Amino acid sequence: MDKLDFYKHQIENPLIDIINTRAQDNNFERQWLQLHIPNRDLQYALSQLSTLSLKLLQQIATLAPVSEAELVTAMSLDLGVISKNINKLSRLGFISKLNGESGLAYRPTKTGTKVVEVQGQLSDLLDKQHTELVDKYTPEQLTTVATFLQDLQAGH
């Protein structure tokens, strides 16, 4: 089998399957959180959040108290994107605003802290699964895979 045939049969099809699965599971984190947080009102509030909002909540918990400008830097996002998601997190009761010496800052509420704790449980589970996966390969093999994927991404 030549390299192109190998690519088409052994790499391309599995990649397409992975991409399709990821597209279908785009809400995986939110769904996992809803299953592991029994409060129905909180489950509904979580259903209103995007993956980005959930990542922002984690950053707020990590950096709290934190300003919008600090979040823009930490997440490499535009102020408008941060502001929109902060407003949603605040409206749904996941974060609260503080008026501090250096201006407006944010911190997680008790509810937001609970969500971040459960996110941490999911992160630990995924880290364990990913560790088991990469342990099968040498650093050189992983470097080859990473380089291949970067080249593929750059070419498409």
Quick gist of this model?
This protein has 156 residues and is mostly helical. Helices cover 74% and strands 8% of the residues. It contains 8 helices and 2 strands.
Protein described:
The protein is about 75% helix and about 10% strand. With about 160 residues, it is mainly alpha-helical. Strand 1 and strand 2 (about 105-110) form a beta hairpin. Helix 4 crosses helix 6 and helix 5 crosses helix 6 (about 80-90). The model has no long low-confidence stretch (mean pLDDT about 90). It has helices at about 5-25, 30-35, 40-45, 50-65, 70-75, 80-90, 110-135, 140-155; strands at about 95-100, 105-110. The chain has a single domain (about 5-155), classed as Arc Repressor Mutant, subunit A (Orthogonal Bundle), CATH 1.10.10. It contains eight helices and two strands; from the N terminus they run ααααααββαα. A two-stranded antiparallel ribbon has the order 1-2. It is elongated.
User: Would you give the CATH topology?
Assistant: Arc Repressor Mutant, subunit A
In order across it, which strands form the biggest sheet?
1-2
Share in β-strands: 5-15%
Query: If you average the pLDDT, what whole number results?
Result: 89
Secondary-structure element order, as H and E?
HHHHHHEEHH
Helix content: over 70%
CATH homologous superfamily label: Winged helix-like DNA-binding domain superfamily/Winged helix DNA-binding domain
Count of helices? 8
Radius of gyration: 20 Å
Shape: elongated
- Give the CA-CA distance, first to last residue: 24 Å
Q: In CATH's first tier, which class applies?
A: Mainly Alpha
Alpha-beta classification:
mainly alpha
Give the low-pLDDT segments: none
CATH architecture: Orthogonal Bundle
List the domain count as a whole number. Answer: 1
The quaternary structure here is: single chain
Counting DSSP E segments of at least 2 residues, the number of strands comes to 2
Q: How many strands, what sense, and barrel or not for the largest sheet?
A: 2 strands, antiparallel
Organism: Secundilactobacillus odoratitofui DSM 19909 = JCM 15043
InterPro entries: WH-like_DNA-bd_sf (IPR036388), WH_DNA-bd_sf (IPR036390)
Protein name: HTH marR-type domain-containing protein
